[in-house]
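Can anyone check this?
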Amino acid sequence: MSFHELKLNVKVQQKQVLTPGLVQMVSLLTLNKLELTEMIQQELVQNPVLEEGTEIVETTEQETAEIRLDTPDAVAEADDTKYKEVNEREVTVEETADTVPTEPEAAEDPYGDIDFQSFDNYLNDGASRPRETEVFEKPSFENFLAKAQTLTDHLEWQLGLATVDEPVRFACHSIIGNLNEDGYLAAVDENGREIPISLEEIAESGEHTLEEVQAGLEVVQAFDPPGVAARDLRECLMIQLRILGEDDEVCSAVVGEHLHKLQNKQFKEIAKALGRPLDETMEAIEIIKHLDPRPGQKYNRAQPRLIEPDVFIVKVAGGQYTVVTNEDEVPQLRLSPTYRHMLERDSLNKDVKNYVKDCFKSAVQLLKNIEQRKHIIVKVCEAVIRRQTEFLDKGIDCLKPMMIKDVAEEVGVHPSTVSRAVANKFAHTPQGVFELRFFFSEAVNGPMGNGTSLLIVKRKVKKFIEMEDARNPLTDEKIAQMLKEEGISVTRRSITKYREDLKIPSTHQRRLRS
């Protein structure tokens, strides 16, 4: 017979636990200026203790002059002083909330919870003013701006003007809903990749007959832009030739039978296969060159991205560079004095007092994290300045290779912290506005190329190809040799990889054939 026995086992285990404050710090570090502003606005709504106003602690002119020192030690000391002040305020809030009065409690005043001063301020600031001076929140001007028309909107508008039977109209809606950004019929699989879609699949998914889908496809393919709703490039070009009235025998034959040779610029082979003179074949090819292989992109262009620098790297007296954070339109937070006085009341409900205490702790933690975020970004930018001074003076051709782990060691933080600090943030420099991650690039391999940034090597490869003779383009081996003459040792396979990253065709595809 077996007996169950209770035992106590001790096990040593290391476990990493992220506190809520650390989680908030990590999330704040990845935000850029616009995202930080939006996050602060949300906190102002959710946390009543936070207010938008001036700094919490007012400093004298002498203290302000000391804080404005440009030395790194002075900046670090100023940051530490701010941290201490915030911590002292946090301790004061907790002590005030937990303090029990020693004096005998007075008779409860039924009007003690009413803040008459607040009502007095309200009356003086608001109600006493005439209605003509009241400021009402007006709708944003952006609400009145015209929205860019998409390809779907454009096609649906044309379908609304077309005279078709209702079953065919419903099939047209299904076809329009299965168009990708380029205007081709395509579906998306489980992994998010685009795959071709057949008319049978559209009919089955939309509960249409195959005849209705075929009729709807003819209707949509007649819409603007020409070539929309095609199933492949060949059909797209054939539709455009038919609509433009250029579907003669030569153009149709080139697109229908020799599209691969056209992509490889084998013009003589096309003329020979068609049995046509080269001049006549080239005229047809010129017509085909003016066709649009991606008709949907006309209405699906990406909207301009709003970029606002997070930091300014400016040159000061003495030729040195300094970092200035961009805090324009970023709300300046402070702790509400009204709620601080509320904690001092003896008659305050315990639950209310605990709630206000939690709000104060959350607010203080947010202030500390925002200040620490600013401190880390400034330190990283100062390290970038020390390594990329030549770039700031002369331009992009003087950009040096720089790794995130090297900057992390110099700043004294983890590489992931630096990666978050430079993510999706931009710096305004004397050479223009650049993303902070732009300054980090690997060095090319080879004994002679260790001091050259990979970005510079790619720029040189692109420049060589742009200056080449179209009839005798440079090979990857030749480009590698030209770089070696400039002191950059790379292999032919590396040049091929760089060219593919730049989306530059191969030598055979770039050659201009007469």
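Reply from J.R.: I decoded it. The beta strands are 50-52, 186-188, 194-196, 311-315, 321-325, 333-335, 426-429, 432-435.
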